[in-house]
Amino acid sequence: MAHPVQKNTLYVGGLAEEVNESILHSAFIPFGDIKDVKTPLDQATQKHRSFGFVTFLEREDAAAAMDNMDNAELYGRVLTVNYALPEKIKGGEQGWAAQPIWADADTWFERQQQEEEMLRLQAENRAAMEAAEELDRKKMAQEREGEKDEDTETKDMTMAETED
């Protein structure tokens, strides 16, 4: 099953042992504002597992960082930089369930506002379309009335000519 790609979170693989979250942050900050940097630790050694995640505030910044940092060298190691996939739960297909429920709270409000704005715009568009259709109906009715008046005038003129 294909997992959705997180367009503002990057997977950074091939990290040297010396690289920590601060160094990773410093390497990626030139591309834009960073929301979060994580280097998951190996439980046994308490050292990072040679990869990390960098989350940017803007998707465009993440794309620029990926384009520039993929195959770049950091502390003598070549980096692999791709869009991150969401975490997969053991035995599950949902992804994301490994995160606490409040992890998405920041974006929830924004999505609600976007949905309300979209509904408002759709209602405005619908009202504009209905107004345009009504105007078109009135125009067609006026044209039909004009044709009837012309037909009546033509008949009157024909009748007048035949009477003469």
Automatic annotation (TrEMBL):
SMART domains per UniProt: RRM
InterPro entries xref list: Nucleotide-bd_a/b_plait_sf (IPR012677), PPIE_RRM (IPR034168), RBD_domain_sf (IPR035979), RRM_dom (IPR000504)
Domain RRM: 8-86
Source organism, top-level taxon: Eukaryota
Gene Ontology terms for molecular function: RNA binding
Region (Disordered) location: 126-164
Bias type Basic and acidic residues, positions: 134-147
PROSITE patterns xref list: RRM (PS50102)
Key words of the record: RNA-binding
Protein name listed in UniProt: RRM domain-containing protein
UniProt organism field: Tetracentron sinense (Spur-leaf)
